[in-house]
């Protein structure tokens, strides 16, 4: 049991970078970016091909990050310059990336790097990922406090208002999408090195996993500040993996049910907070009505 939880924590940290990328588009930019399913594989494919070719795993990881940046820029250009709907832009790029990823992998469905040196060779995976995730989180926090980061956050909050101040919202969207997909690709590169192989379908469903991490993290840990929000996303990724591990220990569930479990987790995480807010609003409304009827409300009492 303890071993399963430790493995879940490791997986949670590996996917935490992807969750941070989804957080940028889903929460900060308010952009439904489905490029994630493709860019995750792009990062893994680049890392696998370069490591198999004898390149340094650190160089391969950096190149994977750059590949994700390019994918995000393409999605941003389709949306801002091509005037294509945001959701459709992501879908189109996701479809295009499937063929591109196959090309990167030499038209092979998978590439094995089991006997190759990786970032985790001779190192503790948990320690390495804690260091990497903390560094990335702090750098992201710093970026979101810069003028460009504030413009990025403002674009998601009120695009029309920030445009009236002279900000180029098209540029901020492209930057946000590129950074998001860069982090997603970086996560894909780490996953490939941890698992020992890259597969062309490894990114399927990653957007749902990322959303689950973001929603669970915010529901449990809150997101009142940038620092707390990014921390909540990371912890949400870890909690999500632990929940999946515990769910799979149920006798009548197996590995093929992971997608169903993920969907149910997201549904519960979305429905429960909404139901609580609705119940709270109804309770407050009933309380105000009772006060008015009893004469103790703001318009009641003796003049």
Automatic annotation (TrEMBL):
What is this protein called in UniProt? Answer: ABC transporter permease
Q: Where are the transmembrane segments?
A: 12-29, 58-78, 85-105, 125-144, 165-192, 204-222, 229-248, 260-279
CDD domains according to UniProt: TM_PBP1_branched-chain-AA_like
The record's listing under InterPro entries reads: ABC_transp_permease
Q: From which domain of life does this come?
A: Bacteria
What's one Pfam family the UniProt record gives for this protein?
BPD_transp_2
Arranged from A to Z, the UniProt key words for this protein are: Cell membrane, Membrane, Transmembrane, Transmembrane helix
Q: Where is this region: Disordered?
A: 282-303
**Protein location:** Cell membrane
Gene Ontology terms for molecular function: transmembrane transporter activity
Q: What membrane topology does the annotation report for this chain? A: Multi-pass membrane protein
- Return the GO cellular component terms, semicolon-separated: plasma membrane
């Amino acid at each position: 049991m303890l071993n399963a939880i430790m493995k879940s924590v490791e997986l949670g940290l590996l996917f935490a970078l992807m969750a941070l990328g989804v957080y940028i588009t889903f929460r900060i930019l308010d952009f439904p970016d489905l490029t994630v399913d493709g860019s995750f594989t792009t990062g893994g494919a680049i890392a696998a091909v370069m490591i198999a070719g004898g390149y340094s795993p650190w160089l391969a990881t950096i190149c994977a990050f750059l590949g994700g940046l390019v994918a995000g820029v393409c999605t941003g250009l389709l949306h801002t310059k091509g005037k294509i709907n945001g959701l459709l832009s992501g879908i189109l790029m996701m479809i295009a990336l499937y063929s591109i990823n196959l090309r990167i992998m030499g038209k092979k469905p998978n590439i094995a790097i089991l006997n190759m040196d990786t970032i985790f060779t001779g190192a503790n995976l948990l320690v390495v990922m804690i260091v990497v995730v903390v560094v990335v989180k702090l750098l992201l926090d710093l970026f979101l406090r810069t003028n460009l980061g504030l413009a990025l956050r403002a674009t998601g909050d009120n695009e029309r208002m920030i445009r009236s101040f002279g900000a180029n919202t098209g540029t901020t969207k492209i930057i946000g999408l590129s950074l998001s997909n860069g982090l997603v690709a970086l996560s894909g590169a780490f996953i490939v090195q941890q698992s020992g192989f890259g597969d062309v379908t490894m990114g399927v469903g990653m957007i749902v996993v990322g959303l689950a991490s973001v929603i669970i993290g915010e529901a449990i840990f809150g997101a009142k500040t940038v620092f707390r929000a990014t921390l909540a996303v990371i912890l949400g990724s870890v909690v999500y993996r632990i929940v999946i591990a515990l769910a799979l220990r149920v006798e009548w569930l197996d590995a093929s049910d992971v997608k169903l479990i993920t969907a149910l987790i997201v549904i519960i995480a979305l429905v429960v907070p909404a139901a609580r807010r609705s119940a709270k609003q109804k309770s407050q409304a009933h309380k105000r009505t009772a006060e008015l009827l009893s004469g103790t409300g703001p318009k009641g009492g003796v003049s």
